[in-house]
Design goal:
Layout: H1 8-23, E1 31-37, E2 44-54, E3 57-61, H2 68-76, E4 78-83, E5 86-94, H3 101-115, H4 128-134, E6 140-143
Antiparallel strand pairs: 1-2, 1-4, 2-3, 3-6, 4-5, 5-6
């Protein structure tokens, strides 16, 4: 399972900056603070994510792969999304790889500037077979 750990800048500058703005109620490019119970401790774990809407449904895409939040969400099946003082509870269903190509392409169109480097050189205009090849490396959850 592919997982690309955040570098120092992301962990200590970028993510805290996005989280701070989102905490203040300023969603940057669809940002939310995802809160999911830890799979071992049950303690709330928080991380900034991009909430994507596609064909009137909402999704969370894991550009870094099988991250801790992905593993926690698989176990809990639910979580919370925060923007400012607003909190939304949700349930999540992980998608099969065959369901991901259009979603990954849409994600890359919107956030390639931010997280395109995690997709192994595959961009939004890549051939279908390339998108399908990387699909197993990028978990996607439909939330409701």
């Amino acid at each position: 399972m592919r997982y690309q750990r955040p570098d120092w800048f992301t962990k200590n500058v970028f993510n805290p900056m996005v989280a701070a703005f989102t905490h203040l109620g300023l969603s940057l490019w669809g940002s939310r603070i995802l809160e999911v119970p830890g799979r071992k401790t049950g303690e709330p774990r928080r991380t900034p994510v991009n909430l994507m809407t596609f064909e009137d449904r909402r999704y969370l895409v894991a550009p870094r792969g099988h991250t801790q939040w992905v593993r926690n969400l698989r176990v809990s099946g639910s979580g919370k999304l925060h923007v400012g003082r607003r909190t939304e509870d949700f349930t999540a269903v992980e998608l099969e790889d065959a369901e991901k190509p259009d979603l990954l392409r849409t994600y890359l169109r919107k956030w390639k500037w931010e997280s395109g480097q995690f997709f192994g050189g595959v961009g939004p205009d890549a051939p279908e077979e390339e998108i399908r090849r990387i699909a197993p490396d990028h978990p996607v959850f439909r939330i409701s």
